[in-house]
Amino acid sequence: MEKLLFTLVTIVVVSSCSGQTSSCSNNPCPRYQVIDTHEDFEERHYVDTDWITTKLSSKDSTSLIAAAKTLRAFCAKQKEAGHKIIDGWPALITTTEGNDHSTSLSWFLAPGSKPELTDTSVTMEHKAATTIYVRSYSGIPSLIAAEKNRKNLCEALIKAGKKFNPSISTGAHYESYFSFTHHNEVWVYSA
């Protein structure tokens, strides 16, 4: 029941994260180059990107709602203060396993965004250029669908002989819940 509630809240939070209702083709997104295409995944090289990120206190709906509210308030204050924030897609939910177990919510900052950190619960995260293995899927985003696609992606990577970091995975969501179509991705980082 908790997973279902988390899924429903995720859908609502991600759909309202920056007020956009169209796919990435109409909004700023991280730039990447496709290195190779496989039957079950794509290998992409992403350029350097910047994100605003806040940690979730737990992996439940209340924590996710609080994280989205924190990022939304941060963006609103930045815009009111005259700092340039260019909303983009995707919204990421990243889980790190192991000793540093954590879950975070991140929103992409398009190039040219210039926020000033004033809230200690929000961090600027600069991600260096890297290779990411991506499995795309359609349908309304859910934790169950993301977990299933992550498992399938990891199995496909092992079969293809790819080295990857199994302790970090990311769900990327690009459209509003109210969109007629949904493009979702699971990201696993190369080792």
Automatic annotation (TrEMBL):
It comes from the Eukaryota. SUPFAM superfamilies: Probable bacterial effector-binding domain (SSF55136). Pfam families: SOUL (PF04832). Residues 1-19 form the signal peptide. Gene3D superfamilies: Regulatory factor, effector binding domain. GO terms for cellular component: cytoplasm. The keyword Transcription regulation does not apply. Belongs to the HEBP family. PANTHER family: HEME-BINDING PROTEIN 2, HEME-BINDING PROTEIN-RELATED. This is Heme-binding protein 2. It comes from Crenichthys baileyi.
